[in-house]
Structures are given as structure tokens and as C-alpha cells.
């Protein structure tokens, strides 16, 4: 199962730093939680997206967790 982590300096919805975790169907919860821990422990990632925080506080970071879809639904 694959997990993808995308980070941006300005999210579409709020214009502030955001991280998205996308996972394949069948991915175990432990794997998703490990990806989340990786994000919170990677200070280089926070610096790269311009997220400023104190100690262990990530308040204000948009964290989106969603399942990947094989086929994208498009409006016709």
C-alpha cells in the first residue's frame, strides 16, 4: 500500500501551509498514523513550507487525510 505526502506553502482553501496524506485502499491505520508522526517530527518539512510553530505544537497546520481513488470523477 502506498502513502503519498504532499506539502504546500499556501493551501487552496485558506492560503496557509497545509499537508495532505493520501493513501491507497487497504492501507492500515497504523501506516497512516506513522505518516502523520513523520510529518510532525520533520522540522525540515515545516520550515520548507513556511510553517512557524512552537515546540510540539502544530496548531494552525491544515492536515488533510484522504483515500486515493483509481478513477477521478469529472463533471460532464
Itemize the secondary structure elements and their pairings:
Layout: E1 3-8, E2 18-23, H1 29-41, H2 43-48, E3 62-67
Parallel strand pairs: 2-3
Antiparallel strand pairs: 1-2
Order of helices and strands: EEHHE
Q: Order of strands in the sheet with the most strands?
A: 1-2-3
Radius of gyration: 14 Å
- Main beta sheet, described? 3 strands, mixed
Instruction: Give the strand content.
Output: 15-25%
Name the average pLDDT: 82
| Structure classification | alpha+beta
Shape: flat
- Would you count the extended β strands for me? 3
Figure out the total of helices: 2
Low-confidence spans: pLDDT under 50, at least 5 residues?
none
End-to-end Cα distance: 31 Å
Helix content: 25-40%
Overall description:
It is a single chain. Helices cover about 25% and strands about 25% of the residues. With about 80 residues, it is of the alpha+beta class. It has a domain at about 25-70. It has a 3-stranded mixed sheet with strand order 1-2-3, covered by helices on one side. It starts with a strand and ends in a 9-residue tail after the last strand.
Entry keywords:
76 residues, alpha+beta, three-stranded mixed beta sheet
In short:
With 76 residues, the chain is an alpha+beta fold. It has helices at residues 29-41, 43-48; strands at 3-8, 18-23, 62-67.
Amino acid at each position: 500500500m502506498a502513502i503519498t505526502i504532499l506539502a504546500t506553502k499556501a493551501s487552496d482553501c485558506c492560503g496557509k501551509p497545509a499537508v495532505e496524506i493520501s493513501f491507497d485502499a487497504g492501507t492500515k491505520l497504523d501506516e497512516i498514523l506513522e505518516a502523520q508522526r513523520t510529518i510532525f517530527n520533520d522540522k525540515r518539512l515545516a520550515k520548507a513550507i513556511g510553517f512557524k510553530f512552537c515546540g510540539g505544537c502544530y496548531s494552525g497546520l491544515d492536515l488533510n487525510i484522504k483515500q486515493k481513488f483509481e478513477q477521478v470523477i469529472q463533471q460532464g
